[in-house]
């Protein structure tokens, strides 16, 4: 059916390869160039994201990560609490795909969220005085 078996002989291996190597295109958007592309955009295909940009919560992840990446707030990302909350709520719906960390890690995650909310609350107070 779908598989094809090819036997190579000793003679096949003795002849030089006729394969041609093509130089990498530095502008290829699908080439692994790290997390940030030369133009400053996020490389959603970067393996460093561990596939978070795809899957059932991919759009929420992209929204939160984009917000954080482009944030110019004094506390970077403090303006992204809503996006991160939406991502977290989505991930909680798929515990098999996004397993929860143990209690110590969960506590630090809640501490981070609380600190972020405190920062945004403090910012709102500054704006209202």
UniProtKB/TrEMBL annotation:
This is MIA40 protein. One of its GO terms (molecular function) is protein-disulfide reductase activity. It comes from Quiscalus mexicanus (Great-tailed grackle). It is found in: Mitochondrion intermembrane space. GO terms for biological process: mitochondrial respiratory chain complex assembly; protein import into mitochondrial intermembrane space. The gene is Chchd4. Residues 22-31 have a biased composition (Acidic residues). GO terms for cellular component: mitochondrial intermembrane space. Pfam families: CHCH. Residues 11-33, 95-129 are annotated as: Disordered. InterPro entries: CHCH, CHCHD4. Residues 57-93 form the CHCH domain. Keywords: Disulfide bond, Mitochondrion, Oxidoreductase, Protein transport, Redox-active center, Translocation, Transport.
């Amino acid at each position: 059916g779908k598989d094809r078996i090819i036997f190579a002989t000793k003679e096949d291996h003795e002849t030089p390869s006729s394969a041609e190597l093509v130089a990498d295109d530095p502008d290829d958007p699908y080439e692994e160039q790290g997390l940030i592309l030369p133009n400053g955009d996020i490389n959603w295909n970067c393996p460093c994201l561990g596939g978070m940009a795809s899957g059932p919560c991919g759009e929420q992840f992209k929204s939160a990560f984009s917000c954080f990446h482009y944030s110019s707030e004094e506390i970077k990302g403090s303006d992204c609490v809503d996006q991160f909350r939406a991502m977290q709520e989505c991930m909680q719906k798929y515990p098999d795909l996004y397993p929860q960390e143990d209690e110590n890690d969960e506590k630090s995650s809640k501490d981070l969220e609380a600190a972020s909310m405190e920062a945004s609350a403090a910012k709102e107070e500054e704006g209202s005085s």
